[in-house]
Amino acid sequence: MKAVTWHGKEDVRVENVPDPEIVNPRDAIVKISLTAICGSDLHLYVNRIPTMESGDILGHEFMGEVVALGSEVKNLSIGDRVVVPFTISCGGCYYCKNDLYSLCDNSNPNAAMAEKIYGHSPSGLFGYSHMLGGYAGGQAEYVRVPFADVGPIKVPDGLSDEQVLFLSDIFPTGYMAAENCGIKEGDTVAVWGCGPVGQFAMWSARKLGAGRVIGIDRFPERLRLAKEYTGATTINYEEVDVFETLQEMTSGRGPDACIDAVGSEAHGLTLDAWYDLAKEKMMLSTDRGHVARQVIHSCRKGGTVSIPGVYGAFLDKFPLGVAFAKALQLRMGQTHVHRYLPMLLDYIREGELDPSYLITHRMPIERAPEMYRTFMEKEDDCIKVVLKP
């Protein structure tokens, strides 16, 4: 089959690889109908995530048709159209039973690698390093889905693939980011990063009662989408001082909740942003923390900071003392996708949101290497790429 494979920094190829097979009675094989390049795939593209190996198959946002089932998968049938969560969860451990699916104890066969860095291992992920399981991803013609009796959700007739594909990651991720804010009716929520996760976080903040949503970015096409689809007020951080502007917009108090939807590859114009870049060039740091610092600095006293943006390991100059002095609540983590799927699917089915509005590029999978470059450089107003095998 054809698959998008990783071979090192900015080296992504489309190659012929062996088809996946059932290896466990709880497996399914899914024939991919649509897959996407996620912003977090770009962390792999530039080689920021350790324990990748040449030839690894990329992709954790995908959906398709069930074509084979293990003997213990009773909830699916051959021919079912399904969306698959990017987090792999057993459904039976302490964490899964408490709806903390991204912390599953049993889905990462390489847990010892993660434990050396994190102390404890999160769940396995599709197509996202050997430290997180070494599972083949879904930017391919077929994928093996472990614990298929727990993860995939059936797609009802009448909904297109493009409408439901983003249930696999970015829609639930944006929703959980907003939910983590503990939004009260009328709150002001500021979101750093108006990419796909930021867009869904803004929509979800509105849904959860925010009175005002503020989107912060530097790309005009992203800021335009935030205005058009979420009613956000926008800030271009290349044109104004973000902290001062937020102070003015909130009568000197600061936003009630702040969401960092940027993560480890933050850009900025302040001294700390240049410091981050310099340390990264010298391989003295793993993450650029400019946005995390600005979010904590800007949030009102007693407010909440939510972090759906991906960070790899250790953050330099993290202002823990600021968060302490302001009594901030910090919430973060990989998304417990399974928890949100039925509810968010209902929102789509009822017409409250058509997530496909984010798609700017529709391409055959053979053009994946070109699309990784385009997405990385934000060329051609690229916001979201979907690939068809």
Structural commentary:
- This protein is an alpha/beta fold.
- It has 13 helices and 18 strands.
- The strands form 4 sheets. Strands 3, 5, 6, 9, 10, 17 and 18 form a 7-stranded mixed beta sheet that branches.
- α5 crosses α6, α5 crosses α12 and α6 packs parallel to α7.
- The longest helix has 13 residues.
- The protein is globular and about 60 Å long.
- The termini are close together.
- The model has no long low-confidence stretch (mean pLDDT 96).
Summarize the structure.
With 389 residues, the protein is an alpha/beta fold. It is 29% helix and 21% strand. Helix 13 (368-377) links the parallel strand 17 and strand 18 (385-388).
* Biggest sheet descriptor: 7 strands, mixed
Specify the structural class: alpha/beta
Instruction: Please mark out the parts with pLDDT under 50 across 5 or more consecutive residues, or reply none.
Output: none
Q: What quaternary form is this? A: single chain
Annotation field: number of helices: 13
Distance between the termini: 10 Å
What descriptive keywords fit this protein?
globular, single chain, 389 residues, six-stranded parallel sheet, seven-stranded mixed sheet, alpha/beta
How would you summarize the topology of this molecule?
Layout: E1 2-6, E2 12-16, E3 28-37, H1 41-45, E4 56-57, E5 61-69, E6 81-84, E7 87-88, H2 94-97, H3 111-118, E8 124-125, E9 142-145, E10 153-154, H4 161-164, H5 170-179, E11 188-192, H6 196-207, E12 212-217, H7 220-230, E13 233-236, H8 242-249, E14 257-260, H9 271-281, H10 290-298, E15 304-307, H11 320-325, E16 329-332, H12 337-349, E17 361-364, H13 368-377, E18 385-388
Parallel strand pairs: 11-12, 11-14, 12-13, 14-15, 15-16, 17-18
Antiparallel strand pairs: 1-2, 1-4, 3-5, 3-9, 3-18, 5-6, 6-10, 7-8
Helix pairs in contact: 5-6, 5-12, 6-7
